[in-house]
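ok here's the first one, seq then struct tokens
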Amino acid sequence: MLLGALRGDIEAVTRTIAWLIVVLGSTALVCWALLSLADAGTDVALTVAVLGGSAVTAGFAIAPIVGGVADPLDPRRFALIGLPTGRLAAVLAVAGLISVPIAALLAAAISSAIMWRDVGVPWGAGAASVVLGVITCALLARTCMALTSLFLRERRSRELSGVFLLAVVVVVVPVGVFLASLEWDGRVPPQLVEAVQILARTPLGAAWAFPGLIAEGGDAGLSLFVAIATVVVLAGLWALLVHRLLTTTERPASVRERGGLGWFAVAPGTPGGAVAARSLFYWLRDARYLVNIVIIPVAAAVTTIPLLIAGVPPAIVALVPVPFIALFLGWLPHNDVAYDSTAVWMHVGSGVRGFSDRIGRLVPVLFIGIPLLAVAIPVAIVLHGRWAMLPALIGVCASLFLSGLGLSSISSVLAPYAVSHPGESPFEQPQRVGATGAVAQSLVLFGAIVLSVPALWWGWLAIEGDSEAATTALWGGAGIGFGVLVVGIAIGSVLFERRGGRIMEFAETT
């Protein structure tokens, strides 16, 4: 199979060779960097080895889920050979070690072992780290491939891959921003020391940690035990999955057969899932929604200009745009029913429960808002300069965002107002009779601010230096926002079921 990748048309072979060159160059660079750690001190070497090894191990687990590539070593492909389940599992596990990613990992792991030998760690510890680390990654990839083929194969789509990638971004970007903001000053920051100690006791970092713990005089025995137990558990899980794959029939659905369903192929087969899928389709393709989403970060950034002109310290101004983003994100769906135009009859005519309608319509905002805030909050904290403000900013944003969603769940049913129809320019607004639109917008916007006053006050105390207020803002803001969201969904659900006729009348006359 490896040689087969070098056969075919010229373009495919060229891409494969280019990819191999990139992998080879990257591997050589990583090996050189690991070998140079011998002169950097055992604490720095341990930190780099554990954090890098943990990230690589997590990557072997995530890649099969995100990539959605068919497994060439799927046990079902070898069912006709007639090997016993245990022997087939062993053969495929060994065959899984013969791959380009594993070869690159093996080279890096051997370089790490050589580096630990230069530091003074016995050869046996370095060799054990190489064996346990490589086998852990290989078995993790095998098991995740098997789980993907069992549970996600029939629903694989670019939308589902996009969801996984978005989840990775939500985790990776804040962590990257945090690491980039640390000041080393010739020694490992205490935050990283604590993170390394935690990862050294987990399946992700145990195999890579115990040689460094031997050099540091730490508890290497516990990490070694966790690494061995991880390999044993993964091997048992792999054997069970091979048995399951060989004794079950693969579902006939395929990507091409369901590819046209888009988000409907990803969402749960429930009324709320159908509403969420339809809403996601509109939010990510309708120009009226896209314009509103693009304007939010721009409007939030503009708010910093008058503050800077007025002489507000830049460290405080850096915290202002993110709460504005959270506020406007929560405010976005306050008139979502009106954007449906006459399509809302599907919800009313099919008897969709109000709860399903309310929850489904909030999914796109959560899908967009959570990753956006997850990236914006750490960036704002870096610009501010004090990571102690992180809990407070999270609490304030959670209160504004969730409170806005809760109030929007009521407003979009109780007071919808006319908007441009589907396909029309988002900058053309129809004439409206009365002040219903202005009142609905104002009530949701200012209502979210009023309800979030406690979180804003605790956040201000945190800016003044009260560390306990930052924790209070986190839990208090999250509690307020979640409470308003639950109450808003409940009230909006009742109103949707009772006002179905009026909603239909509104859709037909605007």
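and now the second one, same deal
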Amino acid sequence: MNEGEQQKRKAPEPSGVDLARQALAAAREQARARGNAVGGKKRQPQPGLRSGARADGRDPMPLMAALDRLRTERGWEMPIAVAGVMERWADIVGPEIAAHCEPERYEDRELLVRCDSSAWAAQLKLLAPQLVARLNAELGQGTVRLIKVQGPGGRPKRYGPLRAPGSSGPGDTWG
């Protein structure tokens, strides 16, 4: 046997601790080669460089900003705006009209308004173009295209195939 083979046989195999030390030494050497310090001195930040942390969508933000962002991402602007108008109906149309007419539904840029008498329904039909202009000023141009006016009670609800003849709804002149 030559000397190299004898030394290999005499040297014990490295244990787990020795392997860990070798791996740490190799990692430190690689870090030094890249310019990063591991364990020893802290590296001084270079001017003009940042840590890499930048503002993104996960950062904390005020509640109203988060709600605005959610509303925009989900496409809820229109339903929320219309709901706001339904809540502020009396402010937009005035207390006199609001006492007798109330919005029921908003679909396909049409607002359905129900009045408590046929006289108020006729009056609201005359005022509809002006109300459309006011509502569009509040919501944004083109939001409300048409106001549909319904009188008291509207159409009677039909429950099942059988109906009693002559019962057409409230005793008003509408419809």
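notes on #2: The first helix runs from residue 3 to 10. DSSP finds seven helices and three strands in the chain.
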